[in-house]
Amino acid sequence: xxxxxxxxxxxxxxxxxxxxxxxxxxxxxxxxxxxxxxxxxxxxxxxxxxxxxxxxxxxxxxxxxxxxxx
Length: 70
What we know:
Elements: E1 2-3, H1 8-24, H2 38-57, E2 63-64
Parallel strand pairs: 1-2
């Protein structure tokens, strides 16, 4: 088992959620919405899903959130 912070899948998902949350903060950063068509948004969602599947398929170790030895 490995700690959660060594998981590529966890970090990819943290970055994805963080990016989505940051894009939703009106006025703090410009969003990509004016530049994305519905088709490109769909492609982005498919790409995110595929990256998750690929990362999960190469995963060999389980992760832990808290140290079970303590």
